[in-house]
Amino acid sequence: MAYRSLTADKRNQLNRLVELIEPFLPLSTYRKTANSFENIFKESGVQKYLGNKKLPKKKRLYKGFSKVYQQHQKIPYTILRKVLQQGELYRKSDSVRNPIKLEEIDVLRDCLKKLELNLDAELAAIELNPDLPEIQVPPKVLIVRLENHPLVDEIRSDPLQKFKDGHFNEAVRKACEKYEAKVQKLSENSAIGSSLMGQVFNPQSPVVTITTGSQQNTATIQEGYQKLAMGMMSGIRNIFSHGDEDRRTPEEAYEMLLFLNWMFRKLEE
């Protein structure tokens, strides 16, 4: 039995709700005890509502919240209370440093009101003036090296700026996402992560061929590049996408960005 009907207006508000709370937590984490949307839904026994794991984060959240909102009377409150409580801590964490703002709370309160959900007490309890961890600015020498390096456009845009601002994990994550998007566009393949890289750079039937100066080494570099791309998705992109990875040093982030820059260069060739 459905507790609430999903009118067009309610669907619009659920979309709006997802847009507002999506930055509050990572969708999933490798650590079973860490805070994430998947764990919160799992604790209420409704993880299946999030749907196919291959779908983008916002689509999964919309599916999950729509189903919970329609089918359950109390679980929407349980889930949203946990999202607000855990999201407050996550947004103030060292890896994020983006505390929830008053304007976000005001818009969220309005959205919940239109969904006939009252969480005013929980919203009022959110700390609006946290003491943020001091941002570690990267050494100037690393910034100069990156700025003077022949970077591809994908690295010189958001990733470089995030690196300069001290958001090292986020800089690398953003660069990986841009790389994945470029491979999808070049190959017209909608797969993601390691699966995408394995298919597109398969030495036996490559969709995108990686070239080298020596013709006799073409097969070898194709296989090597495939493994590098697959490893990058598993060992870098996936790790940083969950939001609970320890903050990397500026030196390590610098090295990762240069590696990604080389991977982009090979695609352009």
Structure, explained:
- The chain is mostly helical.
- It has two domains: 8-124, no CATH class; 140-268, no CATH class.
- It has 13 helices and no strands.
- 29% of the residues are buried.
Order of helices and strands: HHHHHHHHHHHHH
Number of helices: 13
Number of strands: 0
- Biggest sheet details: none
Our count of domains comes out at 2
What is the molecular shape?
globular
Given as residue ranges, the uncertain stretches (5+ residues, pLDDT < 50) are none
Blueprint (SSEs and pairs):
Blueprint (H helix, E strand, L loop, with lengths): L7 H14 L15 H7 L13 H15 L3 H18 L9 H13 L5 H5 L15 H9 L4 H4 L1 H7 L3 H20 L5 H8 L17 H24 L8 H19 L1
Relevant terms:
269 residues; mainly alpha; 2 domains; 61% helix; globular
What is this structure, in a nutshell?
The chain is 61% helix and 0% strand. It has 269 residues and is an all-alpha fold.
